[in-house]
Write a structure and sequence with these properties.
single chain, alpha+beta, 5-stranded antiparallel β-sheet, 4 helices, 35% helix
């Protein structure tokens, strides 16, 4: 029976050898191709990789409620644990025996919202000293100029 399969083997054997050679050559070829191991990672290839957080371009502010109180000469200053409208923090102390409250805001929009919210209680903006992201509210309006002199340029 060897004679019967000879024509088939003569045509299929070279084709099979050619296919195996091409497949093996394609798998081991390095000319012009970049292997996946040497490729630079892409965003799609590394979805769990986190990017470093952007660094601030300016130094963070060191102005705090306590530093404003100290600069203004307010004694016995303590932060409050209760909330104040639109303020991120607030506290109070005394100046020459009179209570002075200091409010801290994230931005000017917070200060504006605060002024609008206390207007219903008869408090007007001219009763407050707005310096940077802080508002100083003395119970004694006569202390506004003293506080202004101490704080202008201190918070900002």
């Amino acid at each position: 029976m060897p004679g019967r399969y000879d024509p088939v083997m003569r045509t299929t054997a070279p084709v099979a050898v050619l296919l195996v050679t091409l497949v093996l050559a394609g798998c081991s070829s390095t000319t012009g191709a970049v292997s996946p191991a040497t490729q630079a990672p892409t965003a799609a290839a590394t979805p769990t990789e986190t990017q470093p957080a952007p660094q601030p371009t300016e130094e963070p502010s060191t102005v705090s409620l306590e530093s404003v109180a100290s600069t203004a000469g307010i004694a016995d200053f303590a932060r409050s644990t209760s909330a104040a409208p639109a303020a991120i923090a607030w506290g109070q102390g005394t100046l020459d025996g009179s209570v002075v409250k200091i409010y801290e805001f994230a931005d000017d929009a917070g200060y504006t919202a605060f002024v609008a919210s206390v207007a219903g209680f008869g408090i007007t903006e001219d009763q407050l000293l707005h310096v940077g992201n802080f508002a100083v509210a003395p119970n004694d309006a006569a202390q506004l100029e003293q506080l202004r002199a101490a704080l202008v340029g201190a918070a900002g």
